[in-house]
Amino acid sequence: MLKLSKISLLRFALIVPAAIIGWYMGLMLGIAIYELGEITCPPEYVVSGACSAPWIPVIKNLAMAIGSGMAATLIVLFAYALAPIHKKNTALIALIVGAIVATVMVIFAREWIAFLFALTGGVITYLRLMQSAPSAATD
């Protein structure tokens, strides 16, 4: 049986909170991008405090795409970085759980662009980590 040190157990325990932080960081990036589009709205397009410029839907989709892609990237990256052992498997589990969560979210929200960017961000991050990961002997 594998015996883990207290620090290793703590690192495994911190993966879920770190994933949540990564998700919020992606969310905040998306909100910041959207708000940047809103505050740069020309006055003639502002109606009741909201921007009705024709490019705002594009900004919204861009913000959701970049935010969800960044969230997925950070979730997989944080899981890999925090795992004291079995880094590849931990990153894969984070990717699979993230894909399941993204699938549930797209069922309810119907935001396909964000869904595709989240999946793409998570998969690319995982594949890049596997390319640069040390051999299985040190995993």
- Poorly predicted parts: none
What distance separates the N and C termini?
17 Å
| Chain oligomer state | single chain
Strand content: under 5%
Widest β-sheet, arrangement of strands: 1-2
The Rg value, from CA coordinates, equals 18 Å
State the helical fraction: over 70%
Task: Note the overall shape.
Answer: elongated
Main beta sheet strand tally, sense and closure: 2 strands, antiparallel
Q: What structural class do helix, strand and pairing data support?
A: mainly alpha
> Average pLDDT, to the nearest integer?
91
Number of DSSP helical runs? 5
Q: What is the β-strand count?
A: 2
Element order, helices and strands? HHEEHHH
Gist?
This protein is mostly helical. Helices cover 75% and strands 3% of the residues. Strands 1-2 form a two-stranded antiparallel sheet.
Characterization of this structure:
The protein is mostly helical. The chain has helices at 6-13, 15-39, 56-82, 87-109, 112-132; strands at residues 46-47, 50-51. Strand 1 (46-47) and strand 2 (50-51) form a beta hairpin. The two termini are 17 Å apart.
Please specify the SSE layout and strand pairing:
Layout: H1 6-13, H2 15-39, E1 46-47, E2 50-51, H3 56-82, H4 87-109, H5 112-132
Antiparallel strand pairs: 1-2
